[in-house]
């Protein structure tokens, strides 16, 4: 039985196309032909409003969801951290690729100084999560909004007077754009599923589901699911400062998570562990504990 090429839906940004092309190569390795179909998203057209002010989940995925449900594409490829924890009805997860770096990094700007005893710095980011964690550590600093694709944001940093801007390491690494002088923010917890790529398809499309199952990475899928379960339990999205990271060490899942107030002044954090076989509910359990420890009040203040 022959099949037409699998149509891969992707946003038009360089990073999104890189991710879709990575899936295309994996499909080819498993004997499937495919083609890329470019879809514009709301997140790509409004480049001025901070993401935490737009305040809607799925801003980078909704247009692709519509194209998928309309039959315009067969699968869609997303940065997993952009995908709402409740997927659109009729769409299911088909595969998660092995996770790249989960870390955030600081790209120094013209105003950069390594001496934190000098005047307060100005840092650029559109992420409320990064903003609050930075202000928790450096409360005297100020945060400017920075939107656009990776290349646009890197250019804006160099044209600015900022001390620096915060980027996901994975995005810069994938495009070979990570500056040599970038600084790893190893104290900053990432967004749930940061660094992971997910492929989705229509619920009834068993052909595409089977085609993608061959390159699903079980460990990344488990860790991302745990982080997203925590996010769902806290009912968070792009406009709430929630961070989570699950990692597997010696057959044990270690989950770290935190919730901060918008000004960065208050933080509630948690760390939980479980054997891989018993870890499926780790995220929802940690989320419930965070809520019991006062996270609900912080999140209400964040909305």
UniProtKB/TrEMBL annotation:
Its cofactor is dipyrromethane. It catalyses: 4 porphobilinogen + H2O = hydroxymethylbilane + 4 NH4(+). Its EC number is 2.5.1.61. Pathway: Porphyrin-containing compound metabolism; protoporphyrin-IX biosynthesis; coproporphyrinogen-III from 5-aminolevulinate: step 2/4. Residues 221-291 form the Porphobilinogen deaminase C-terminal domain. PANTHER family: PORPHOBILINOGEN DEAMINASE (PTHR11557:SF0). Belongs to the HMBS family. Monomer. This is Hydroxymethylbilane synthase. It comes from Nemorincola caseinilytica.
